[in-house]
Amino acid sequence: MSAIAENLARIRSEIGQNVTLVAVSKFKSPEQILEAYHAGHRDFGENRVQELVEKAEKLPKDIRWHMIGHLQTNKVKYITPFIHLIHSIDSEKLLTEVQKQALRANRSIDILLQVFIADEPTKFGLDDNECLQLAEKIHQGLYPNVRLRGLMGMATNTDDASKIESEFRHLKSVYDQLCSTFPTMPIDTLSMGMSGDYPIALRCGSNMIRVGSAIFGAR
């Protein structure tokens, strides 16, 4: 068994069957991704559109590609034909563009709203009220080719576990509010937790984690 396959097996055993593991494959070669694929993995996440498109063209078509990085509106059209889930909807302008391109591609696209929870100005995301307002507009049918599946957030990059936990618990509370406010929407995904903090995220209620270095090793 390869190191990548061993890492995947170890993480899967830790997180259980009800958590989706997205293997963050940015900067990883097609060969490395295929190692994970041949170990049975299908969910892969990319941060950059150009790299995502190039890999999607080369690799097996049953891979479920996740866009997990900041997405510019002018790049949306390149991923709409095949993307499985966009984690990083952080503005109404971006949501409008996804709707436009999804309609053009004649498909429905699953999305997560990215909520700003970190104490870092360089990170992106909606505040709590903006998140609920966009969810309401989706609920009203203003974006018929978009399906809201849940929320994504990134905690502060810090060694302070209590701070990380506080941020994740806040995001879980927004997620719970979303679920209770819109019970008829297919909201079932809380994407939080990466290689350095996913055990905390799981304790706080995450059911989707985005893990790169713990699978593929450091760049």
UniProtKB/TrEMBL annotation:
Record's function text: Pyridoxal 5'-phosphate (PLP)-binding protein, which is involved in PLP homeostasis.
Location of the Alanine racemase N-terminal domain: 2-218
Residues with N6-(pyridoxal phosphate)lysine modification: 26
Protein name: Pyridoxal phosphate homeostasis protein
Similarity comment: Belongs to the pyridoxal phosphate-binding protein YggS/PROSC family.
Pfam families with a match to the protein in the record: Ala_racemase_N (PF01168)
Family matches, as HAMAP family: PLP_homeostasis
Species for this entry: Thermaurantimonas aggregans
Keyword Heme: no
KW Nucleus (keyword) present: no
Example of a GO MF term: pyridoxal phosphate binding
Keywords assigned by UniProt, alphabetized: Pyridoxal phosphate
Co-factor(s): pyridoxal 5'-phosphate
